[in-house]
Amino acid sequence: MNTRKAFTLIEITIGVALASLLLVGTLTLMRSGMKGTSSALSHQENMEAAYILMRQIEYDLSKATYFEYPKNNVSDKNAKWFGMLREPGKEPRKTTYMYSSMVEGVDRKLEDSKLDGTDPNSKSVLLAKEHPVKLQFTHYASETADFNKHALWVEIEVGSIKGNVASFTLSRLIELKKSN
């Protein structure tokens, strides 16, 4: 009668090898899933930064009355325009809006003063912080005797903070009411 009470060394080796193969396969599958999730989250972060930046530009452009640059029918990576800032319960203020790309984000500067030029106020905000951002503004203007139409083509390209995801590009043509 042959009764075995223990595993042989060969059986243990085969069991460890099979368990190792299963573990490596499981870890590879988990790593690829985590990489995909990380990539999707970075892409979503890029999209959110681009949409927030575009909404801020649209809001500021709604107050535009005169463009300093880009000039009519010209493209530029920076933009500067003038407008009127009207806040509830406050006196209207002449405001200068300036946008420019930085190494990590977009610099939005506001300079405003009362209508008589007194009480100057200036503030700067960094938008899309830590993201590599490329801005392109193209000012389209059509001035004839019959009409005066202006639009600003805004292109925003937002890169990933981690650099592992393709950048997200958002473009929009924003029609403006311009009066000099």
Description:
With 180 residues, the protein is an alpha+beta fold. The protein is 29% helix and 41% strand. It is built from one helix and nine strands. A five-stranded antiparallel β-sheet has the order 1-3-4-5-6. Strands 2-7-8-9 form a four-stranded antiparallel β-sheet, covered by helices on one side. β5 (105-114) and β6 form a beta hairpin. 16% of the residues are buried.
Give me some keywords for this one:
single chain; 180 residues; alpha+beta; five-stranded antiparallel β-sheet; four-stranded antiparallel β-sheet
The structural class is alpha+beta
Span of the ends, CA to CA: 108 Å
**Anisotropy-based shape:** rod-shaped
Largest sheet: 5 strands, antiparallel
Quickly count the helices.
Answer: 1
Q: Which strand order spans the largest sheet, edge to edge or round the barrel?
A: 1-3-4-5-6
Question: Poorly predicted ranges (pLDDT <50, ≥5 residues)?
Answer: none
Global Rg:
29 Å
Give a brief rundown of this model:
With 180 residues, the chain is of the alpha+beta class.
Question: Which helices and strands, and how do they pair?
Answer:
Blueprint: H1 9-61, E1 64-69, E2 74-76, E3 79-85, E4 93-102, E5 105-114, E6 121-127, E7 133-143, E8 148-158, E9 168-176
Antiparallel strand pairs: 1-3, 2-7, 3-4, 4-5, 5-6, 7-8, 8-9
